[in-house]
Specification:
Strand content: 25-35%
Shape: globular
Order of helices and strands: HEHEEEEEEE
Number of strands: 8
Helix content: 10-25%
Number of helices: 2
CATH superfamily of the domain at 12-124: SspB-like
CATH class of the domain at 12-124: Mainly Beta
Strand order of the largest sheet: 2-1-6-7-8
Radius of gyration: 17 Å
Largest sheet: 5 strands, mixed
Structural class: alpha+beta
Amino acid sequence: MNDSGPDSLIPYDEIVQEALRAVVGRVLGQIVAAGGTLPGNHHFYITFKSGAPGVSIPAHLRERFPDEMTIVLQNKFWDLAVEAASFSVGLTFNQVPAKLTIPFAAITGFVDPEVDFGLQFQAEVAEILREPHEAAENDAPVAGAEPAGDGSNVVSVDFGRKK
């Protein structure tokens, strides 16, 4: 079999990325439908490109996390709302409340450590130089709750490109 087959005229990678991002929207939508409370010990780490189009975060957070930011939906969040292309949520950072709006296209990672489930996405925004940044400070993690370690249930979609 020839590895240098023709380029697809169908954007499979984009279609799959969009479908997997819809999983995040559906999960968050179920939380909204259940009254905004996470079931059991479920909690989510959501990583997104802070400079992506449509991302709305306070200026002090954009300065602190100019490239990428991870939020935790666990104990202290409010006003979770899910739209067709984005979600919004209220969180506290250093005891200061903030409202964030995040398009699904800006999400680069979604993890539920309770069930060792994770999704990683290719960024849909132009790559910018990555600068080291501090860890997210909203909602302190629960003792013993760590993000997926071995990645056994992490789905990473990265379609190879011809070189």
